[in-house]
Design a protein that fits this description.
167 residues, alpha+beta, four-stranded antiparallel β-sheet
Length: 167
């Protein structure tokens, strides 16, 4: 327990994880700025037989959940993102030596803040990665969503490794 208190007080190691979160956030925002500058809403640029660049706006959450809810969801998901970001920074400071766990949190943090910025600035999240097969399209997503997904997968991996070490 003392080790965690010292890491929390000194902030040792937390800067690496916050730097990864910041890089994730910057990559997310820069790609969204590029898409907004290059595409009109709804415009599509085919890249391969299974992938398009497209500009879509998502006022909801993942897979457009609550997209038609009337506007309150903007503030709900913004608040949720802010609270989650605060918790993740706290956890990063408490567990700086846990590599997989902290990498997961860093990706989640950068992605969550990236989407919060979109909601605050535009009232929606800018999505642009469109994968498809035939006429079926996976819901469009962005760099922040990719980081959140990878972070969640790493959290699951970290837990599986932790349980395995405990046996």
């Amino acid at each position: 327990m003392a080790k965690h208190k010292n890491a929390f007080k000194s902030g040792a190691g937390v800067w690496l994880w916050l730097g990864i979160a910041l890089l994730t956030l910057l990559l997310d925002q820069l790609t969204k700025i590029a898409v907004v500058g290059a595409f009109q809403l709804g415009e599509t640029l085919p890249m391969t037989s299974y992938f398009n660049l497209v500009r879509v706006h998502n006022p909801g959450a993942a897979f457009s959940f609550l997209a038609d809810a009337g506007g309150w969801q903007r503030w709900f998901f913004t608040g949720l993102g802010v609270v989650a970001a605060g918790i993740m920074v706290y956890l990063l400071r408490m567990h700086t030596g846990q590599t997989v766990f902290c990498l997961a949190l860093s990706l989640l943090l950068g992605g969550a803040v990236g989407n919060v910025i979109d909601r605050l600035l535009y009232s929606h999240v800018i999505d642009f990665l469109d994968f498809y097969y035939g006429t079926w399209h996976f819901p469009a997503f962005n760099v922040a969503d990719s980081a959140i997904t990878l972070g969640a997968a790493l959290l699951i991996l970290d837990e599986l490794l932790r349980v395995r070490r405990g046996k």
